Amino acid sequence: MKKIGFIGLGIMGKPMSKNLLKAGYELVVFDHNGKVVEEVVQAGAQAASSSKEVAEKSEVIITMLPNSPHVKEVVLGANGVLEGAKKGSIVIDMSSIAPLVSREIGEKLAAQGIRFIDAPVSGGEPKAIDGTLSIMVGGSQADFDESLPILKCMGASAVLCGDIGAGNVTKLANQIIVAVNIAAMSEALTLATKAGVDPDSVYQAIRGGLAGSTVLDAKAPLVMARKFDPGFRINLHIKDLNNIMETGHEVGVPLPLSASVMEMMQALKVDGHGDKDHGGLALYYEKLANV
Ligand code: NAD
């Protein structure tokens, strides 16, 4: 079995790395946050003191970091993966980042004989814990095939969507649908509440019909229970919406719904809610409607 390095043990990376340990892989890990490293070491991993050391000790290096600058720093920066990785090793970036940055990283690694795929995920913390994430991949068929057994330890599905960057284009598409669905759900439940109808009755009545969705089932019960712990931070969804708008401008696609939801999330961030779950979009509507 290949020795795997894992960098970024946050809300998603921690359970994903634990699933690799459960599957029997030997794991070397690194994160700035010593507390999460300790927890994964308790589960059987070995700690490294830098991303470079992770790469030196692994054949496959997985990164699960917030955004493009973090991945660039960890992979290409001082004491980073590129300085330590052996020729022929594979870097699998599972973070959600800008597709252009994935391509840039892929090119710089390829120039040193290191392979790269982008493999962002959907499903959030519950599916990261269960190992049932949906994984969207960009890269060569050969690198995808070789990575598949590892990806399958973390996900229920892994689909090759195209060359390097295609995984992150797919993830941006996913994030448009999720953001707009959460906004629609918040708008609908706020209307029902203000019109005097119990939102839970509305949810139970509509969830089996055309308005039913994975987003509605995942988020409506949490909103009604006033549970806004992340999950997926509003700040991270703003990051994705920024990458969505940038990509839309690059390729010439107007994105009016994404722009609106981004401004709603931005208003919540300014109001001090950036570290709440993106289901907290309901708070924006409740404030507008004085619920
Ligand atoms: P997080 O902020 O909880 O975790 C990020 C981790 O990276 C932290 O532990 C942080 O200490 C570490 N880190 C940051 N910079 C580092 C560096 N230079 N070196 C070492 N470690 C560093 O974020 P998360 O929620 O786990 O999300 C990670 C990625 O997955 C993001 O791109 C996010 O958009 C995506 N994602 C998240 C969810 C979700 O529900 N949380 C779902 C799907 C995709």
From TrEMBL:
The active site is at K171. It is an enzyme of class 1 (oxidoreductase). Signal peptide: none annotated. InterPro entries: 3-OH-isobutyrate_DH-rel_CS (IPR002204), 6-PGluconate_DH-like_C_sf (IPR008927), 6PGD_dom2 (IPR013328), 6PGDH_NADP-bd (IPR006115), HIBADH-like_NADP-bd (IPR029154), HIBADH-related (IPR015815), NAD(P)-bd_dom_sf (IPR036291), Tartro_sem_red (IPR006398). Keywords: NAD, Oxidoreductase. Residues 165-281 form the 3-hydroxyisobutyrate dehydrogenase-like NAD-binding domain. GO terms for biological process: carboxylic acid catabolic process; glyoxylate metabolic process. Its EC number is 1.1.1.60. Transmembrane segments: none annotated. One of its GO terms (molecular function) is NADP binding. It holds the Pfam family NAD_binding_11. Residues 3-160 form the 6-phosphogluconate dehydrogenase NADP-binding domain. Belongs to the HIBADH-related family. This is Tartronate semialdehyde reductase. It comes from Syntrophobotulus glycolicus (strain DSM 8271 / FlGlyR).
